[in-house]
Every structure is written in structure tokens, then in C-alpha cells.
Design goal:
single chain, mainly beta, seven-stranded mixed sheet, four-stranded antiparallel sheet, 11 strands, 51% strand
Length: 127
């Protein structure tokens, strides 16, 4: 049984930092896209950052220069370092992994392109 377990969320003041972790178990994702998505109240789930198995990354425009996604294939884990947090970053953050072997250079960004999801971790940024 595949599981993705997120950790690291919490409450932080604007300008602060958090580091999210997502540990996968049940299969290896060393040749698969992994990523982070978020969902704010009343809004649809949206792409935040994704990483290919070749370590190529893509970010949504609103987090570029502030967030960094990385992965450790030996640990089957993906991370999201979030700096200079803003109140508009407040959301439930979800880790995701694609079941299919991905491109070495270009990770997928669509919500419906990912097959496995974590339970989500709340990030709240106060002003």
C-alpha cells in the first residue's frame, strides 16, 4: 500500500519560513515526478512546485524566488522549503507522486496527472 505522509506545517508570521517534508512508502518514486500542491478555503487545489526524477523543477509564479522544492531519492522523500511566507500562502499543502515513469527534464504540473496524494498539512501565515 502506497502512502505519502507530510509533516512540517504550522502557524508562522508573515516573512517567516517553514519546511515541509513528504515521506513515501510502499514503492519507490525515484523515476517519477513528485510535487506539492495547495488548496485554500473555497478554492480549487493548485500546483505549487514539482520536481522531475532528474531534479528539474517548476514553480507557480507566485512562489518563485521564495519556495524551493527538492528530493532525496535514497529516502524516497520530497521537501518544500518556504521562505518569506505571505498570508496568501495560507492553505492545506498536499504532497503528490505520479505512478508513471516521468520525463528526466520536465515534470508534470496538473493536479489530475498525479496518482498518489498525502493527507495534507495546514500552513497558516498570519499578518
Amino acid at each position: 500500500q502506497v502512502q505519502l505522509v507530510e509533516s512540517g506545517g504550522g502557524l508562522v508570521q508573515a516573512g517567516g519560513s517553514l519546511r515541509l517534508s513528504c515521506a513515501a512508502s510502499g514503492r519507490t518514486f525515484s523515476s517519477n515526478d513528485m510535487g506539492w500542491f495547495r488548496q485554500a478555503p473555497g478554492k480549487e487545489r493548485e500546483f505549487v512546485a514539482v520536481v522531475s526524477w532528474g531534479a528539474s523543477t517548476l514553480y507557480t509564479d507566485s512562489v518563485k524566488g521564495r519556495f524551493t522544492i527538492s528530493r532525496d531519492n535514497a529516502k524516497n522523500t520530497v521537501y518544500l522549503q518556504m521562505n518569506s511566507l505571505k498570508p496568501e500562502d495560507t492553505a492545506v499543502y498536499y504532497c503528490a507522486a505520479d505512478a508513471q515513469r516521468g520525463s528526466f527534464y520536465l515534470p508534470k504540473t496538473g493536479v489530475y496527472e498525479y496518482d498518489y496524494w498525502g493527507q495534507g498539512t495546514q500552513v497558516t501565515v498570519s499578518s
